[in-house]
Every structure is written in structure tokens, then in C-alpha cells.
Amino acid sequence: MFYHDNQLQYEVEVEEPDPEFGRMLQQAIGGVEGEMRVAMQYFFQAAAIPDEHAEYREMLRDTAAEELGHIEMLAAAVNKNLRGASASLGDGDSAVSELLPRQFLSSGMHAMPTDANGAAFDGSWIVASGNLAADMYANIMAESTGRLLATRLYELADDPGMKDMLAYLIARDTMHQNQWITLLKELGDPEEVFDVHPIPDSFPDEVENQEFSYAFMSTNVEPQEATDLPWTTGSSIDEEGEYSFLRELDLDGAPMSVPKPSAQAYNEPAPQGED
Amino acid sequence: MFYHDNQLQYEVEVEEPDPEFGRMLQQAIGGVEGEMRVAMQYFFQAAAIPDEHAEYREMLRDTAAEELGHIEMLAAAVNKNLRGASASLGDGDSAVSELLPRQFLSSGMHAMPTDANGAAFDGSWIVASGNLAADMYANIMAESTGRLLATRLYELADDPGMKDMLAYLIARDTMHQNQWITLLKELGDPEEVFDVHPIPDSFPDEVENQEFSYAFMSTNVEPQEATDLPWTTGSSIDEEGEYSFLRELDLDGAPMSVPKPSAQAYNEPAPQGED
Amino acid sequence: MFYHDNQLQYEVEVEEPDPEFGRMLQQAIGGVEGEMRVAMQYFFQAAAIPDEHAEYREMLRDTAAEELGHIEMLAAAVNKNLRGASASLGDGDSAVSELLPRQFLSSGMHAMPTDANGAAFDGSWIVASGNLAADMYANIMAESTGRLLATRLYELADDPGMKDMLAYLIARDTMHQNQWITLLKELGDPEEVFDVHPIPDSFPDEVENQEFSYAFMSTNVEPQEATDLPWTTGSSIDEEGEYSFLRELDLDGAPMSVPKPSAQAYNEPAPQGED
Amino acid sequence: MFYHDNQLQYEVEVEEPDPEFGRMLQQAIGGVEGEMRVAMQYFFQAAAIPDEHAEYREMLRDTAAEELGHIEMLAAAVNKNLRGASASLGDGDSAVSELLPRQFLSSGMHAMPTDANGAAFDGSWIVASGNLAADMYANIMAESTGRLLATRLYELADDPGMKDMLAYLIARDTMHQNQWITLLKELGDPEEVFDVHPIPDSFPDEVENQEFSYAFMSTNVEPQEATDLPWTTGSSIDEEGEYSFLRELDLDGAPMSVPKPSAQAYNEPAPQGED
Amino acid sequence: MFYHDNQLQYEVEVEEPDPEFGRMLQQAIGGVEGEMRVAMQYFFQAAAIPDEHAEYREMLRDTAAEELGHIEMLAAAVNKNLRGASASLGDGDSAVSELLPRQFLSSGMHAMPTDANGAAFDGSWIVASGNLAADMYANIMAESTGRLLATRLYELADDPGMKDMLAYLIARDTMHQNQWITLLKELGDPEEVFDVHPIPDSFPDEVENQEFSYAFMSTNVEPQEATDLPWTTGSSIDEEGEYSFLRELDLDGAPMSVPKPSAQAYNEPAPQGED
Amino acid sequence: MFYHDNQLQYEVEVEEPDPEFGRMLQQAIGGVEGEMRVAMQYFFQAAAIPDEHAEYREMLRDTAAEELGHIEMLAAAVNKNLRGASASLGDGDSAVSELLPRQFLSSGMHAMPTDANGAAFDGSWIVASGNLAADMYANIMAESTGRLLATRLYELADDPGMKDMLAYLIARDTMHQNQWITLLKELGDPEEVFDVHPIPDSFPDEVENQEFSYAFMSTNVEPQEATDLPWTTGSSIDEEGEYSFLRELDLDGAPMSVPKPSAQAYNEPAPQGED
What we know:
Chains A, B, C, D, E, F: Residues 252-275 are annotated as: Disordered. The structure is a homohexamer of 275-residue chains. Chain A has two domains: 19-187, Ferritin, core subunit, four-helix bundle (Ferritin); 205-254 and 262-267.
């Protein structure tokens, strides 16, 4: 279950309120790269993990609660940037004109569960696939676009308090990128970083149509001169094949193969996390 | 610009139409893990890449066009699974009852731009962040959840034609996971797979609040016994720090630091792909 | 900031897994009447309350954290109802056929941030208006439809563990209805339950067009016989007017009045909570 | 069935067109607090009421038709505020720049079924729960946030015509708050305003887990000093219990009780309106 | 303004309630082809028409009100099909299992503002473009897909009452297709049905790049044999050009022309309805 | 399957970058009137057409691929308009302030799959009904509102390169309107343009309630003087009936007719395209 206290995780100060910057901060609350998404994503991923991987479940839940605290910090930051703004139209620089209308009309100048364009948080962004390796990539992606967003906000920020808060959040995103990659490595052979690939790794290799597993497909109508690229020659990154180069124009509705012998064998339940 | 011909990329055969399986296939068309998302995602990522990285742009566009061909294959597969189904209610096993209503009422028993629950494709799932490293993680995630979906569909499939088509699509997802990781490695030092981290790597390390960059934060109200986990001790995965363990309860609104000296320095334009 | 532990708030047991009931429970997680909505609603309402009403802010945050624990309980209940279900189609009673497809295809048979129809949680349902009295009605409404949902789930439940869990959640909804009404009364004269009306009560009565403030408007084209209804005669519920009966057909584009004298007077900032 | 005439319900005049104010008015058309929502909400609630409560059904339908007339008034007001605006960019104060782009690009400078942020009206906001008491709270909430919106618009308005129109709409919201509360009282004992609680009142009290029905749950990790608050001591607002104070930290996965004896008894159909 | 009475526009009888058919009917209420869409679409189109075209405005408003009556009929039909259904799971043919869960859980077995897949009505489907000719095509499309839906429902219907109701609604869709085409003809030369094309017809022909105005563009990578199709040869349907055939492969980034002389001339306001 | 090359279909030049105009162009990418919608709409319509109408399928696919090239052109145009824009707030004319926030925060100043208000592309706009005649009206509507949008963008454009690009796109919309009408005529008797009406034309006329098929229904509460309008007298546009005038007030719940004799006859499968 969940608890709280009356502290913010990190101090939030605004010397000079700036409604337009407040609007920008909304992206970090309710946007696709924001904290509502990661808080809920880690929450649902944790809920799917069975007891035999309790340490992964705990780690996800630890960070889910941490992210709730980040929403709180950002909501405080939005509110402080809107404080004292006068509610009027009439000249191009009024707070109401710089904000999206709903920030005044629907919330009375407070933080909202929306992104910086005013679109509502959307639960369909939450990824919890039942496969831990796939989930970790969703998390690294979320923390990469999240840190990218935070650095862009830092670039726009003038206020030292806002720069300081963002410097903290950027640091946390650094840690979270690291921790999800570390967990990803733990799932396979820790010495072989891409050992978990292809995801899901439990699907038997011989069942997929291996003729096409490592062929880069060029769909250009014109012949390509340089075809010795890192993704068309050499060993594949998962170390299970050799890259090759294939023109789509040379395909002709590749014929249907006979049913693969090991197809039935797959219908075994795969252990969660390796599935 | 884009072209087409009248062939499918790979033969699609259905021996025994199965409307319920047809409905399941919709997830691979319009679902969050499906082909509409990746086709559009690679398309928009390609459009953002400037001329100096033309080889990356080309690679993304090659695969965007390939994925359009996958939507076509899957649409053919849905249509073949619905063919001949009688339009009636009245017993629990009629095709109309096994499908979602709109597949009959709105499309006359054809493939739709929706997922298997009947929800419409949603453009907010498309990630094109303007940072190639972040985009690659979005792509690995998309191909990981996409391959996971395809293997689950394989598990449900009875028809040999459907198993064959899925074995092809699974193979392509294998290749695409590999090719995006290969591109990710190319962005940094190819010998150091996580050299691009933390993403965005152009943000100066000394500006973030480094006190918190490699500390795992436990939000558990109870003290944890085992705190020597791969993400709490040892070298961080990006090789730029040492992991440590921190209890949230020990935080007390970490005080605001003085403005970071290098903040101004950051306002230089970062080259695309490293930004 | 937020914390957690490894306990559920209340024990969740399922004797006989029932995937179809698991699907029904999703409504209480990600549905418009569900726990994600109230958790986030109380969270954002709390964030908008200034220090002078700290006790209201605290109360909202207490219950926000409690509701997060309810999502956790319900996710555990969904997972337990799906446990052991075989992943196959082929007869009308398979678990996959009873569930919405995505519960297998997208989550591998786990709880999802969606409602029972498979629609994603939508942040636009969250009400945090910046006016505490309006917010309290949003909360009573949420807890009324939430308790209604829980009793309907109770009615569908067969499993004693599920009935027990729901009996707990129903009790909590009883408390929450009571506590929001209590707070609502606190905002005005506690002896006069509707003293806060009309909401927002800070708007000067004489500015609104009082000719129409207590007139019930019949839009029926046929004359109504009984016009002495509780809402057409007698004292208004806010005790500021007398109900009357008005036929829309008797309106003729009611003429524009002169500007109201007290209009300017309103442009004072209203104290939060009374605004 | 529905009828119309060629009059507006109340005169709408704009002396000085103001595109930015026109945009603000959109919130009252297609926003979550707006008239499309209440018109449709009352319409669907009315449709669910059986003949034995025809007077409630009629009342809802009367007001549904009235609200359609409000959409018409607001659409006229938006159009009048956009009239004569020149279609050009180029300086920060052009009408196109002050509006959201679609108001020019998609409607040619007319009212749209969207809110002031440009988001489309969303049918998921419509509450018609099949329980009249719960519906009435949804209606009081809608009219409270609606009146709050109208007073905020009044505060932003400069034009006397707009102030006059809003003074009318504010008055109607006053009446509608009153009429829904009056209906709510009618559903129970009219002398006991909260007699309908807990909603739904037909669920047998002894089935819910009464140990938790009137306990305020503090989720704060720190002990609270003041625990004698209106919601922690004294008689509950529904007059069916005594408030108490409970720390979540003292819970330990409250044990599963034996099945409640009256569970079966509940499976009787509840009369609509009291359900 | 709008009025109502207590009659349905056309009698709605259900001999044998059928919950699954009730669910199908939802598509005609809240679906993209349904009555909420057309009612609101005609309403907003009417609101955009100025006084000089009052007869068109009236016609749209007449039909908007008629469509509200159709929602009412369909809501009654859904409710009658759900009447008496028992609220239980447990066997595959229970009403709750045949419906989407929310029809029981969220509305207590009543009509909802959703489509047959359970997705909420979406205001972004409403087309009111500010150009009457374009709007008429949106209306013909809506009535064509609407009538198609009604005939598919007729095909599924067993109950004579439902067949009778649908025969009425199909007839109304016939009329509405006819009336919008008639209005479309009125906008141009009534003897020349496509005189309004290309829409918008007020844009000066010489400004568009006429080299490409009547060329069918083949994007096939293979040469096409039959290129004398109705859309590649002969007079264009708007009688302003001659069709031709063009291969995309022959394009080579068609060069930028000099600015068109008449570009400035266009910046005149176009009269509404011809714009 | 699909192919591409490295050329744009038509040259895209921007002399003077204008971020605000770049934002406007987004409507033509991800808006309801934009190119993502038509590309996907023609794609799904094509996928539904069986072999006996291969020439229609081909035509749709030709234009689907052409439209993908238009998205590419528009994305290039957006990027060129944003090039060199400085990332700062602080004065009302900064690029970030003129754009929606996400264009900087989420994409790093590149084209996005959204409309000009910042709302994501929505797959529910795609119409592919399984009936070619209805689909053609959806297409004419899309190309009419699309051309209307392009002419409005032309009106806002200052840059000669942008005017030139739009003059090309407007020309293509002219062609596409013509080609869909031409296909529509081909479906019926090419000499009788509305021969396909009422859509779907395969439904037997005698089954619909013909008493109401050509009656214009006035829902005005006041009697109308002029009732000899083109839609109330004379031959109907589909040449199958005579228009008449009917007041809704004269309806009295039109009585239920006996089941129509030809109802069973309809349950034959209708050939696609005529259905």
C-alpha cells in the first residue's frame, strides 16, 4: 500500500513567476514523456511480476512511488509560476493569453493532468507487456525522452529555482536509465548485454522464418550503391546471425513454407520475465 | 516519394477462415504494438533527420515502406479470416458475435484501422523526439512488443497459413530489433554499447545535480535488508558513476543549490542525433 | 512525497479464478468510476490548495494514497482471476475469448490501465477546478458511481474472496462519501448544508440575471397541467429565492439588460475554497 | 421528439468583436464543463427513467432541451466575436494568431464542437448511471463547474453584451443547481437531506464490511497530532455511524472475513431510482 | 431554441428482448455513422450560416431536431432489448456476457452515448467547415454510411418491432441523402450537378498549378497497360479540364514555378456558401 | 507492397522560415482534413475490394501512395519553416511561443503527427465502409475539406515557395475530387449521376417505410409559410419519388406496420461495391 508525508522530495522555488514557463512544465506532468506516465507504468509492471522475481517488483514499486513525488514537485512548480497572475485578456502578454485557456477557465490557475498543448493524460501510453525485457525497453525509452524533455525545459528556464529543480530531475532520469539497463542485463547473461534478444527470447529460433531474420530490406526503387553498412554486413547484434542485404523488388510474394516442426512445442507456458 | 506494386511482400493464405482469429490479428494492424504505429514512427523520424545523416534517414525510410507492406499483409489476413462468415446473431458462435460489432456494422467484415479491442489507431503513440538515440529506444521497444504480440498470435493460431505468415513477421521483427540496436551503437563509440547514455548525451554532466545521478532511491517505509543489488552497488552502466543506496525517508527537501556555472554554456545548438 | 510497503491494504483471495469476472473488475481500475480516477483527482485537488487550508489538503492527500492502494488490490484481484487460464481460442468458453483480446495480446494476462470495455484510462475525467465546493461535488459523484459499480460487481461475484474484497471497498466508498460531504459542510455554515450554494458562492448575487435564477423552464410544446412541483413552487434549496414556473414558448429572446453595476466589483481575487 | 423555432432563448449581442474572447467561450460549448455535456447528460438520464417516475424524466428532458438552446446562444456569441476578423498571420495580434489555428483552418471562423484548448467534445464525460441519486450528484457537479466557468468568463469579459448573456447563463446554472438538489431530496426523506446516502442506498448495510465504513484512514507516515477533525469524530453525515481515526500503518492486510450471510439476499432487483 | 414533447417520433416495440441486438443498436446512437453525430453536425453547420441563406440554415436545423428524436427512439429500443435481462455471469449466454461490460456496470442496462464496441461518442467526427458545399458532402457521406448501418442492423434483426423501426429510419436516411444533394445542386447551377466543383469553387483556377489538376498519377513501379480509364482520358467531371495519365516515376521534383500573378487577388473575403 | 525513393514529389522551398506558418501546416499533416487521413483511408478501402473490381482497388492504392508523398512534402515544409528558430521564451514573438509547446518540447522543432491545435492524428476518422459508393462520398468530402484547408493555408502564406507548394497540392485535390466522382458514376449508370442512390442501393425499396422516404420533416413549432422549396416539391434527386412536406407536430407516434413481405429476401449477400 501507499503512504505519503508533507514534504516535497526536493525543494521547489520560483523567484519570478512565469506563466508561460508554467505551461511548458505541464508537459512533464501529463505529457507522453511525463511523470504520470512513468509512475503508472512502473506501478502496472510491478503488479504483473510474480513472487519469484520479488526483487524486480520491489525495484519497480520503489521508483513508481518516487515518480509520484516528482508529479507533486512539478505541480508545485506550475502553481508557483502562475501565482499572482492577473485574470484578464486584452493585451498579448496577459497570463491568460500566454497560457492555454483551460489553465484559467478549468483549474483557476493551477497544475492540471494535461500536457503542454492542453491534451489530457492518456492511459494508452502505459506499457506493461507481461514481458520484463520488453518492459525495460519501454522504460529506457520513457526515461530517455523524459530526460530529453527535462533538458529542453532547462534550456528554456530563466529562474534559478527552476534550473535547480530541473537539475535534480535530470539527475534522477540519469539514474533511472541506468537502473533499467542494469535490470535488463540481469535478465540474461550479464556479460552479454544483448543476450535477451530477440525479445521475447523464449520463442524457438527455428520456428521463425530464419531466411528473413537478418536480412536488411531495401525498399528503394533505385539500386543502392553502398550496401556494406553496419546493418547489412557482419555479425548481428544478438550474435545469432549474419546480416545481409535484400531488395524488396527481388521479392515475389515469398512462397509459403511447410509448417514448422517445432510449432507445437512452443505451446508451453514461458516463465514470466523470459517469455 | 512512395510507390507500390500489386504483390504482397509475403504470401498470405488461410485454409480455414476463423473470424475470432481475424479479430485478434487487428491488434497487429492498429494496436499500440502494431504496424501502423511503426510505419508512421519511422516515417516521421526519417523526416526529422538532416542531410549530414542521410544514411540513417534512408534506413528509416526503407523500413517505413516495408512496414506499410506488413499492414497490407495483415489486412489481407483479416479479410480472409472473415470471408464467408454469415451475418447473423442468434447463437453464441456466429461470426458477428465473435467479432466486435463494428467489424460487421462499420466495415462489412473487412480489416479496420483499429486494435483487437476495437479502439482506433492513435497518433499519440508515434515517437519522433528529434533525438536519434531516444528514437532508437522507442523503436527497439516497438519491435520488442511487436514481436511479443506476433509470438502470442502464433501461439493462438491453428491455421498453417497463418502460422507461416507470422513466422515471417516474427523474423522481420528480429531483424528490426537488431538493426535499431546497431544504429544506436553507431551513434556513440561502437565498442561501448552504452556510450550514448545518459540520453541526451550532449547535456553537460556537471549541470545535473550529480549527488543524485547514481543513487537508487528506496521509497519503502520499512528498512531494506539486502541493499547490495546490481543497481545499488558497483559501477553504473554508463560508466560515469558509482551506484549507491538512498532512503527517501532520509530526504528532507534537499536544499536548493547555487546556480550551476555551466548553465549558459548549454545554450549551444546540439548536433542532431547527439542532442 | 510518497512511500509504499509490500503489503496490500486488505487481503485479496480468489478461490476459483474466473477470467470473465477479472475483466469486469477492470472497470474499477481504469474506468470512469474507478480508482485511477479518484487517486489522481484527489492528488491534483490537493496540489491546488494553499497553506491556509492545509487540513483540507492533507485530507485529500491521505485519501489519494489510500486509493493507490485500492488500484493495487484490484490489480492483484484481476491477476488472480486470470491465473492459469490457457491461451487458446477455438471454443466459446476459452479464457482468451471471454476476455477482451488485449488482456492476452498486450499484457500477457495481467491487469491493465483500462476499463472493462478495454478503453484506456482518460485523464480528462479528473476534476480539479480550483474551487473546493465544486470539487467536493465531483468527489461525491465519483464515490457514488464508484460505490454503485462496486455493488454491481458484488452482485456478479460468486467467489467468497471477491465478495469479501468488494465488501471492504464498498465500506471505504461509504466513508469517502461521508467525508467529502462533511468537508463540503465545513466550507459554509455547518448548520446549513447548502450554504455554499450557488457554487461559486463568491460571485455577487446581484450581478446574475435574477429574473431567471429560480424559474423552472418547461420546454414542452404542450401546456403542463401539474406545475406545483417541488422545483416550481416554494423556497429554493439555497434559501435565496422562490421557485416559479416558466414556459420557454413565452420567451421571446429576453431583451438585453443594462450592464450590471457591480460587475467591476467582482474583479477582486476570491479566496481559494470560496471562489 | 424535439422541435425548435428561429429565436434564441436570450438575446446575444456583441458590441466589439474579440476573437480571443470568442476562443474562451468555446469552453462553455464543447468543454467538460460545457453545454454539450449537460444537454446530452440530461438526455441520456431521461431515457433511462421508467414510466413510474415520469415526472423526473420530464424534468430532465425539459432541461436537456433548454441546454440545447444554450449551445445555440454560445455558438452565436462565438461567431459574433469572430466576425470581421482578417485572415492573416504576421503580427502577434492577428485574429488567426489569437485563436487556435483550427478555428480558421477547419471552420472558417465559426463556433466548433471543441473546448477552448481545441480538444473535441468527448462523450465519455456523460454520466447516466442508472441510479438517479448518483446522477443528481453528477448534475450538481456539472452545474457547479459550469457556473464556475461562466463566472470566470464573466470576469474576463469586457463587452456589455457578453456580460449580459453570461449573467443570464449564470442565473440558469443557479436554478439548475437548485433543481437537481431538490430532486435529490425528493428521492429520500425530504426532511433528511442526506437520507439517500450511502449511494446506492439499496445495498444492505450489513453486507459491507462495517468495520471500515466510518473510519478515516490516515496514510501519512508521520503520526498526526490533531485527530479530532469533523471527519474523524462524531456522527457520520449519513447518520448511520460514528467517525473514527485509523492509521494505514496499523493495517496488516486485514484478514478475509467469512462470507456475509445476507449476500444472496441482495440479488433481488432494486427499483430504479433507489438502486 | 429547442422544445420537446412526450411522444416518440415513431413507435418503438420489442416483442422479444435481445441484449446482443441492443448492443448492436448502440452503433446507431454513438457510433461514427450514428445519430449523435448527424444531430450535432447539422446543428453546428446551421449555426455557421448567415442570414442571407436563412432557408439553408432552417433546413439544417429542422433535420438536427429530427435526428435528436432518432436518438430518443434508438435509446428506447436499446432499453427495451435489455429489459428483464438478469445480471449474472457464469454461462456464455447471459445478458451481461453478451453485452459489453459497461452496459451493465456503468449504466445499469440502459442506452449509452457509445458505439457498439463501447467507444464513447467523439466530437471530432462533426464536420462543419464553413463551406456549405463541402458540408453537404460530409452530410451525404454521413447519411450514406448511416443508411448502410441501418440496413445491416435490419439484416441482423429478428424482431418485427425492430424491423419496423429500422424500416422507418432507413426511409428517413433516403430522404436525407436526397435533401442534401438537392441543396448541393442549389448552390451552383441546378442544371449542372457538379457545378460547385472543385470545392471551394471561389479559389481562382489560374492560381492552382493547372499542369497537375487533371492528371491521374500512377504510383505503381510497374508500367500499366490499360491507361484509357474513365479517370485518365476524356473530359473531367467538373468540365474544366481533360484527364491525362502520369507516372510518378517520371516526376523529378517538379520545379518551383514563379509566383502566380493572381495570388494577391485571392485575399478577398469569399461569400459564405461559395467560399 | 510499398517502395520509395529519395525525391520529393514536388520541390519544397522556404525563403523565409516562419514558425507560426509551420504550425498552420500541421493541420494538413495530422488534421481531420489532412494527408495522413486520406493516405490511410484509401489504403484500407483498397484492401477491402475483391479481385473482380481490381481496377478500383488499383486506383485507390495509386492515390494512397501519392498521398504518402504529400505527407513527406508537408513534413519538409514544416521543418524548413522551423529551421534556425531559437529555443527561448521571454518575448511574445519567440518561435517557441508562436508554436504549440510540444513542437519544441517533444519533437525538437520538427513535423509531428498532429494537427495545428496539437491534437494527435485519430484513426477513427478513417472511413472504409465496405460499400464503395459510401466510400466515394467519404473521399469527395475528404478532398473537399482538404482543398478548402489548402486554399486557406494559401491565403495565410507569404512565402513564394509555400504558395507554390500549395498551388500544387490544391491542383492534386482538384484531380482527386474529380476522380472519386468519376468512380462513383462508374458504379451505377454513368449517364445518371445519382443512379447509385439511395446508398446502399441493394436494399429493396419496398422494405423501407416508403411513406416517409421523400417527405421533408419540419420540426419548427411555428407553421412555415414557404413550403414549396426544392426539397419539398418535385421529383426527388434519386428519381425514385416525389418530395412532400410534413410537420413533425402532425406525427403521433406513427403506428407500427406489419412486417414487410420482402424482409427475408434481403438476407442474400450483396455483391461488394453495390451492397
